[in-house]
Design brief:
Elements: E1 3-9, E2 13-20, E3 27-30, H1 34-47, E4 50-57, H2 60-79, E5 87-94, E6 97-104, E7 110-112, H3 118-131, E8 134-141, H4 145-163
Parallel strand pairs: 3-4, 7-8
Antiparallel strand pairs: 1-2, 2-4, 5-6, 6-8
């Protein structure tokens, strides 16, 4: 089972997340921010993850950023060492919005993010940095910020579901890299 349960408590936030990659999209969310809960629910449903999250914070910035960090760390931990397809992508239309997301789970964090809401731009970057994802998002069109951000989270979920499919061997042109401390 690819599951992780993490907690992070700072002076500003108290975050607890349980993530099961091979789930069915069930969520139990209590995050002090309804839009954050909506986006986490969207990500989990489209990624087919089971996600339990409880998050408290002293302000929206800390709450959203730290939730992204813990979620990214939980995803990396839940992946374990099982080889996966690595890459995923999705184009999602939602009313006026049309977005594209592509990613690679190679453990080289990079985020080129188009997102109209600065807090969710920051969420996506923090999530990628803590998980080691290379992520590119593009907003092809849209005028309603809610629709654009929701389409991004749908596309992220679909892309992760595609990338996390187990495979027999590591997909790489390089031999498996090993780092040693000296």
């Amino acid at each position: 089972m690819r599951i992780a349960e993490l907690k992070r408590k700072t002076r500003e936030t108290d975050i607890q997340i349980k993530l099961e990659i091979d789930g069915s999209g069930d969520t139990r969310l209590d995050c002090q921010d309804r839009f954050l809960e909506h986006m986490l629910d969207t990500l989990a449903r489209y990624g087919s993850f089971d996600l339990t999250a409880r998050a408290e914070g002293d302000n929206d910035h800390h709450l959203i950023e730290d939730t992204a960090i813990v979620l990214g760390s939980a995803l990396r931990q839940a992946m374990g060492q099982t080889p996966v397809e690595r890459m995923g992508w999705a184009v999602v239309p939602m009313d006026d919005a049309l977005v594209t997301v592509s990613l690679d789970l190679i453990d080289r964090p990079y985020a080129e993010v188009e997102c109209p809401l600065p807090m969710y731009h920051h969420f996506l970057r923090s999530f990628c940095m803590s998980c080691g994802i290379t992520l590119h998002t593009r907003v092809d069109r849209g005028f309603d910020d809610h629709h654009i951000v929701e389409a991004l989270f749908k596309a992220l979920g679909l892309s992760l579901r595609m990338a996390l499919v187990p495979r027999g061997e590591l997909l790489s042109t390089k031999a498996e890299a090993k780092m040693e401390r000296g």
